[in-house]
Amino acid sequence: MEWFGARIDGPMVTVRAIHFAATAVMAGSLMFRAVVAAPVLPSDRAAAGLLQTQTLQAGWIGLATTLASGVIWLQLQAMSMSGLPFHEAMASNVLLTVMNRTQFGLVSELRLVLALALAVCLTYDRLALSRWLGLVSALGLTAAIAWTGHAASTMGETGFLHLTADVLHVIAAAAWTGGLVALVRLMAVMRLHPGLAHFARDVILRFSTLGIASVGTLLLSGTVNSWILAGSFHALAVTEYGRLLMLKIGLFAVMVAFAAVNRFRVTPQLAQTEPRLDVLDQLRRNSLIEIALGFTIFAIVGVLGTLHPAIHFL
Questions:
Q1: φ/ψ of residue 43, rounded to 5
Q2: Is pLDDT of 15 > 90?
């Protein structure tokens, strides 16, 4: 299978993309509640209840999908490392060896512990302590993805810089894309319950602040990662990895453009005494486009993680 000239492992790429998207939705929804919506909505019991329901739905669905795709990812990794067909790799001790004697397996075990901790926290989500511990578990589950990719194989001080940048990158991506999913769902509720629309402007402005912080972090960490993995502008142009990386950067730029339109052109229209539902609809449409672009980027990241970095071809 080829994509933009790069030969890829279709099942591996698909599973990785689903895993990244599910993790982002799970962690981003919890971040959205903690730093965006909860400080605005606690005075309204109906709104707070709707936020609680939506967050738990996203948390459980995201966690279940993350666990299922993570198991399949581990199985595909065992096949790849052993070179054996699926049934032979699963019937032998290959899977156990991968889990206990490879970095990918050990990181998978750690992430499983964090996933189970998050499940417990979601079960007791009405407790304030459980909510914060759940957020910490979700962030840890997300951040640990950095140890499953190219950053984990970079050596020395550059390796430490690469891992740090990758951790910030995956958390910022989850905050933005996963937070967008939570925002769109909340705006849909506000559209159906006009009495809640007066919360919209404060929620959207707070999310805009989170989005700006996320974009800045993505730009900085992405620049570091690209410098380490590509090494030169020439490598971006002449390698399969580089061309896919440029496509990812282009889609990111389009996402930022839609976010800027939402922040500086559409959101100010909510400053009126009576919030306009047509403005909420426009914000939702633009946000849905951002989400689609974000999920496409996750698919590209799924491909990039299976290719040799461009710098290896210099």
A1: -75, -15
A2: yes
